[in-house]
Please model this.
Amino acid sequence: MDISGLVIFVVLMALGYIAGTMAERKHYKSIERREAAMLRQPIVTYEDMETPEGKRVRKAKMVTGSAVISTDYFKRFLASLRFFFGGRVKSYESLLDRARREAIIRMKQEAVGAKIILGMRIETSNIGSSNRKGKNKGLGAVEALAYGTAVWFDEIRPQTP
Amino acid sequence: MKYVPKPLEGNVNVSRTHPLKELLLLCGGVLGLVLAAYLALGFAVDWIVPYVPQELEEKIAAKIPMPPTKHKRHAEYLQQLAESLAENAPNDAGSVTLGVMEMGEENAFALPGGRIYFTRRLLENVGSENELAMILAHEMGHCANRDHLRSIGRGLTMALLASFLINSDDAVEYFIGPSITLGHLSHSRKREELADRHGLETLVATYGHGGGATEFFSRINDNEEYKHPPKYLSSHPAPHKRVSYLEESLAEIYGAEEGELTPLPDWWDEWEEKSP
Model:
């Protein structure tokens, strides 16, 4: 029996679990801190808006933010067991959640000073997963890309006669 | 309408299940499925084996290459011993053919088609006819119980389950492969015990006592050369365990422990030289 294979498996699982959990906890803390700091920056999925009274558009620019989050051995193992039974792939949910939130934070960082971000969209793609011999041996990572149109306004000064 | 930002409480997008709980549930489920499949197929094999006709077994055996047999005089002696043992055996082993092969290891094998091989090294170290008879009757027990058909059937089952796993993740293979192997080995140890009991019964019925029953296993146990893996990784019960359960059976069931050992013939230590 292949004992060395089993030992490698157990080590990778433990490593994946410990390192993955630590990284995830740290990332969530950082996400929550930055989200709170940027809370006052509104984003809407609505694509059109009236210019508020007394203001005029100074600049409108597409802003993007993207984040790539990798899976770990432990999460991938849980997901591969899921393929036997179906159901929610719970171990991947946090990856996507982190990727989306991180992408939005980065997009907001590009829109400092903008009054609003219009028409925000999120795209997701998986990268780095090469299908060799039908086995999913490559690294599994997910990319989330958030983009929208950031609008900066200027106050219109009352015209002096 | 005034925009009032509010921080969101909680996170509906991520499940709250603890990953380790998820791991236990999923592993348990997959293990359960695979073991159930293995057990069901194993029972199917055990159920069908007694109905497999002798001719079919011989056809299967014909496809398996047999080692060349040497030392005709010893083989002939073993053949006669087997015939006298067969008269006293609890289960009919069918017709058996004995052979001797050159091999560095002390061992004896039963192969499909009633072929039983002893290695020369084993024959050189054997101390009495009784000891030899015990080993031979053990192997005849394998033939009578049709253990090689069982092991071929189980092997096919393993191959089937393995092919089912080939398309899954490597990690799943690492995890499930060993669990099946452990089940397989446990089955193998049970078959060995049954063959041991068959051997013991035959021995007592032939010689009227159980002398020589445990010599081989004691010798193997004392031999530093054979490193014994832990129980769950072995296909055979540990030699010291075999010695103790054989002694127990001797004392409890047959009430006959020791008796005079039958010596081996004078020419036993004369060997034909290795053929080139």
